[in-house]
């Protein structure tokens, strides 16, 4: 792992941004959670807009902290620092699920040349195997209703790791199905 000047604490910024984003996405949810409370907070559109500004500011701060971390750790020189900073800032509006696979609608995930129903046993087994392979990763999950948005785990790093894990699994399945016998 590269960087480390800040003990990789810049990821806390992304975790906060993702938690606020979850509040935004569930704001109007009137269903009841396991504690008997309404899931959504019911904030006004003006407050939601300000929350969204906060998410963007936190993500921007994360990108700067991450790139500066690599620069100060001598993993990037000045030129690559400037190039990568610009690249990440310009690509910041892209969602990770669009890169690592995304919902095709309903409960079907599509990525790596493969599709998978998010509500079937195979996806659940993949999650179990992931959690065995990464026993120290935080495993609190988002509600299944938002899994189609690429949000499986509440912890940002765990979620990103799982999305990459799932993509690798899907690529492996696709290669296995499309291999020509020698």
List the helices and strands and how they pair.
Blueprint: H1 11-25, H2 45-72, H3 78-90, H4 96-100, E1 102-105, E2 108-111, E3 114-117, H5 121-133, H6 156-178
Antiparallel strand pairs: 1-2, 2-3
Helix pairs in contact: 1-2, 2-3
Characterise the protein shown here:
The protein has a three-stranded antiparallel β-sheet. The chain has six helices and three strands. α1 packs antiparallel against α2. The protein has 182 residues and is mainly α.
Concise structural overview:
The protein is 53% helix and 7% strand. The chain is mainly α and 182 residues long.
Question: Which key features would you list for this structure?
Answer:
182 residues; mainly alpha; 3-stranded antiparallel sheet; 3 strands
Number of helices: 6
Low-pLDDT runs? 93-108
Structural class assignment: mainly alpha
Largest sheet, in brief, is:
3 strands, antiparallel
Proportion in helices: 40-55%
**How far apart, in Å, are the first and last alpha carbons?**
38 Å
- Report the mean per-residue pLDDT as an integer: 80
Fraction of residues in β-strands: 5-15%
Broad shape = globular
Along the chain, the helix and strand elements come as HHHHEEEHH
Number-wise, the strands total 3
Main sheet: which strands, in order across?
1-2-3
Radius of gyration: 19 Å
């Amino acid at each position: 792992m590269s960087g480390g000047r800040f003990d990789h604490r810049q990821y806390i910024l992304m975790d906060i941004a993702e938690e606020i984003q979850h509040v935004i996405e569930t704001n109007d949810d009137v269903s009841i959670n396991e504690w008997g409370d309404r899931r959504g907070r019911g904030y006004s559109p003006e407050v939601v807009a300000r929350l969204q500004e906060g998410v963007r500011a936190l993500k921007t701060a994360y990108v700067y902290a991450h790139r500066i971390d690599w620069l100060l750790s001598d993993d990037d020189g000045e030129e690559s620092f400037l190039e990568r900073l610009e690249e990440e800032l310009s690509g910041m509006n892209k969602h990770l699920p669009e890169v690592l696979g995304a919902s095709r609608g309903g409960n079907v995930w599509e990525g790596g040349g493969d599709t998978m129903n998010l509500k079937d046993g195979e996806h659940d087994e993949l999650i179990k195997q992931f959690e065995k392979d990464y026993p120290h990763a935080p495993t609190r999950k988002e509600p299944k209703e938002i899994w189609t948005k690429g949000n499986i785990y509440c912890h940002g790093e765990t979620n990103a790791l799982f999305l990459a894990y799932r993509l690798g699994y899907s690529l492996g399945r696709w290669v296995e199905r499309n291999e020509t016998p020698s």
